Predict the structure of TerC/Alx family metal homeostasis membrane protein.
Amino acid sequence: MLSYATGVLPLTSTPEQMSVHVAEWILLFVVVIGIFAFDLLSHVRKPHEPSMKESAGFLLFYIFLAVCLGGYLWWRHGDTFGLQFFSVWGVEYSLSVDNIFVFIIIMGSFAVPRALQQKVLFWGIVIALCLRFIFIVLGKVIVESLAWSFFLFGAFLLWTAFSQVKEGLSESEPTGEEADNFFVRLARRTLPVAEDYHGDHYIVKRGGKRYITPLLLCIIAIGGIDLMFALDSIPASFGFTTEPFIIFAANAFALMGLRQMFFLVDGLLERLVYLHFGLAAILAFIGFKLIFEALHHYDIATGFFSFTPLSSLLVIVVIIVVTVVASLLRSRSLARKEKNDDDGAAGGAH
């Protein structure tokens, strides 16, 4: 365990530090870059609307790769780090569903043609992964330098959980303000913007002058919102481990399937009526977990139960399952009630 004199927090629920060989880092980067390059060259470069079969096939393939990586970490580095990977990966997948909801709003605001949407998603995911890598490095430096940083991370996640609850209770329709964030406004002020789409081109030339297309502007909008998502995502990851390798790998493999998941769940998200409450529960759990880790560090509240990697993973799985099942049951009940009301109205008309 690290010295208290340094002001460094010990690894969350982990007595030893993970020893990652440089070859493992290189292999991870090669695999991630290779998969994204294959995705771009074989599918994204040619504009088309992916079928359900194509999306499901690739999503299952990415899940299989993630399970293989988790199995390798379990075998090579021990069950603690394997469980930490699966916990972070599961949380990132859960948060990705909320990301998809915002992406749908943004692309709807920009009226992105269906065939071009996966190109926007691809570059949005690449931007997200780059931003998260930067935040992982910064987060590791902060955690190793400031013992009280877990209090800050925990409080931020609790505030985010509260925001999710408010959003879940709100009955107002999405305004699409995410599509007009700071980066989009900056681009509109500094760059000439074409009014119409020009196929899958990001920049067009008219009368000797170059214009950015709405396609590139939409990517900028998603890149800006990716920055906000990273602020939620990375502190949540640090709630399970402070190992950069695990956090980056879990984020990368969760983001890989985000594009395919978009086309699979688009139109089904409205059935997840308790999504915001489920995400709030996950974020609140991680927030309290981080705060208790910090309290344990200062020998405060040492009598509180300390979550092991396995118990943390089980909590996340239970929250996800309860959220999905409760949402589907509620959606079915609402649909049945709406049908009965329509039948009653039709009967009254006769």
Q: What stands out?
A: The first strand starts at residue 203 and ends at 206. Strands lie at 203-206, 209-212. Residues 1-15 have pLDDT under 50 and may be disordered. The chain has one domain: 20-80+88-338.
